[in-house]
Structures are given as structure tokens and as C-alpha cells.
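Task 17 of the worksheet. Students: predict the tertiary structure of the chain below and write it out as C-alpha cells. Keep your answer in the requested format; marks are given for formatting as well as content.
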Amino acid sequence: MESKRQQKIARLLQKELGEIMRLYAIEHLPGFLITVTRVNVSPDLSIAKVYMSLFGAANRKDVFDRIQHSNKEIRHQLALRIGKQIRVIPELSFYVDDSLDYIENIDNLLRS
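Model answer:
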């Protein structure tokens, strides 16, 4: 069970990373949409698992690899935004959230 502090930090990270990813997509991936769906923070606030939904015409694996490669840049942008609110900026681990694809697949199966 997450503490209130973890929940607050997770909400803050989700909000700020969502904005960072929106700007990242505009700059590096035109025509692509990246949504931060969930963030889980470790009890010591040193690691954040970031779950993202990827929408667009490009190959998702290539986009995810580019995001993984830009991890330090994204963490730096996060530090510039929330550095005054958090003492230590957590390490970021990115994961693809495919729950929407799973729901769409179930919906298609139910319709047929």
C-alpha cells in the first residue's frame, strides 16, 4: 500500500511527465501522441515506474526505444520543473501501458 507521500509524488510526476512527453512528441515525433497513464513510486522515492500509452502512425517499439534513449534528458527536464519541490529526483523506468489495446481487443472479440 502506498503512503500519502508516495501518492502525492506520483501525481506530481504524472502531471509533469505528461507535459514533458507532450513537448517531446511535438519536438521529436511529429504526429505522435504520448500519454502518461500511471506512475508508481518506490517507498524511498528513488525510483519511479512510468507507464505510457503510445499513439501514432510510427512503430511503437522505435518510439519507445527513443524515449528510453532520452531518459537522462527527460529526467533533467523533470528536475528543472520540480527541483524545488522534491529533494531527490527519482530514477525513471519507462513501461508501455497496453491496457487500452487489451480493452479494444476484448471489445472486438465481443462484437464478433
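Marker's comment: Residues 4-28 form the longest helix (25 residues). Residues 59 and 65 are 10 Å apart (CA to CA).
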